Structure formats: structure tokens, C-alpha cells
From TrEMBL:
It is a multi-pass membrane protein. It comes from Chelonia mydas (Green sea-turtle). GO terms for cellular component: plasma membrane. Belongs to the G-protein coupled receptor 1 family. The chain crosses the membrane at residues 28-50, 62-84, 104-122, 143-165, 199-231, 243-267, 273-294. GO terms for biological process: cellular response to lipid. It is found in: Cell membrane; Membrane. This is Olfactory receptor. The lineage of its organism: Eukaryota, Metazoa, Chordata, Craniata, Vertebrata. CDD domains: 7tmA_OR51-like. Keywords: Cell membrane, G-protein coupled receptor, Membrane, Olfaction, Receptor, Sensory transduction, Transducer, Transmembrane, Transmembrane helix. Gene3D superfamilies: Rhodopsin 7-helix transmembrane proteins. SMART domains: 7TM_GPCR_Srsx.
Amino acid sequence: MTDFNSTNFQPATFQLSWFPGLGAANHWISIPFCVFYVTAMVGNCTVLCIIWKDRRLHQPMYLFLCMLSINDLGVSLSTLPTVLSTFCFDVTDVAFDACLAQMFFIHSFSNMGSGILLAMSFDRFVAICDPLRYAAILTNPRIVRIGLAIVIRSFGVVLPLPILIKRLPFCHAQALSHAYCLHSDVMRLACADITVNNIYGLCAVLIVFGIDLLLIVISYILIMMTIFSLASGGRRLKALNTCVSHVCAVLIFYIPMITVSIIHRYGENSPPLVHVLLSSVYLFVPPVINPIVYSIKTKEIRKSILKMFSR
């Protein structure tokens, strides 16, 4: 039985779950997720090691890529403990405070991912639209300040979420829809008015993801205008090629995220399996795909990887 705090009615634990109706197949389902984790860890660590060792890659574009790889590792490590315990060891209980901590880190790294993608779009904008001032604008101290601003903004926006959950009473069955804790999933279990949580969650999404995506779209409109003003077709192709990896990363990140937000708020009648699959794609696919895309499309990283394996 679930224990409750006598004053705040906070549960001692939440019950983790995943893929409704497929409980008997959990051990088999764990195999692809273990592959995802290993691929994400190896891929992002490889990118970080290559950029760290090769001083020629200590440039703004690759420093932002390092930030993205570190963030992808953070996303993976945030979900790893509860996902593996649920699938591999059938441990489905997670302590209330541990759940809030995991929720904080998952949402913080998601917000940081959005900010890093915006910074990378600014990098591409300066490189293509004002190449002569590229080195003067994106100096190392300025890149550090951008990184700190992304971290501070993310933590500042996400910090109220666990505080808002803490004030809610929980007096029903505490079964979550996922093998990890998300704000939208935890708050629906409360037996009190969650209007404040809903409004703040929506505002946080619009302030962070909405503004970031709008600025990324604007930057690419300006980039496209600059590219198509170039007289040489070869220069156009070269400029476009430098943006392909970042565009892929933006699409991989934002399409699942927007779909998850819409389904959570307006898809109450959709099957539970849809919620689980979309959330899984949102959290597990970008850390796996990003290093692969950048390794394939970035010549310097691709050459370093081939040199490493040839040795």
C-alpha cells in the first residue's frame, strides 16, 4: 500500500509503468532501449573526445556541438536509472522526492537543448550572413556567457515545477504513465485544482520553446535570403551544406516535442500507448541521432573518426 504524508498527503512512492498491455514483454522491450543508451553514450562521448583532442576544432560551431552532446548525455542519464530498473529488474517504485528531482533534470535538459539549438542557429547566421566578423562576434568568452545564460534560463524556468507539485495533495492510485517522471504526468494524479500547474507549464513551453523556435525560423529566413543572393551556385551549395546538420537536429528535437505537448493537453481520448511512444521518441531519439548526423555531415569530425578507427 502507498503511504501518505499526514499533512500534505504526499505519496511515499510513485508507481512507474510503460507500454500498457505489454508487461510480459518488458524484458524484450528493454533490449532496444539499452541499444539506444549505449549508442547515445558512445556517440556523444566520441564527438566530445574528437573535438577536445583536435585543437583545430576549437571553433564556435564545434564548441556549440560540444554543448549539444553534453546536453544529450544529460537527457540520457536523467532517464537511465528508472528506465533500466523498470525494464531490467522489475523495480517500479520511485520515491516522491526522487521523482521530482528526475522531473527537474529531464525538463531542464530539454530546455537547455532548445537554447543550444538557438545558439547554433545564431552561429550559422553569423557565419553565412556576416562571415568577416564571425571571429570577432563569436569569441570564446562570449560563447561561455551564452552557455551560462542557457543553463541559468533553463534552471530558472523549471525550478517552479517541483515546487508547484509539492503543494498538491495526492490521494489516488499513484501510477505514472511512463518509466520516468514528467510534470504533465505527475500533476494529473493530484486530487486538487491543477490550473496553476497547467498555466505555468504552458507558459514555460511558450516562453522557452516557442520563442526559441520562432527565432530559429527567423534566423533561417535571413540565412536563406543571404544564400540565394549569392551569384555562384557552388557557394550556395556549400553554404546550404553547413546548415543541414543543424536543421536535422532542430527537426528531430522540435517535431516530437510539439506533438507531445499537443497530445498531453488536447488528446485526452487518444490511446495511452500514443502518449508513451511520442514521449519516448522525444527523449530517446535526439541523443542517438544527433551525433550520427553530425558525424556523417561534418567533414572534419568524419575524418577524425575514420582516422581513429584506421589506427
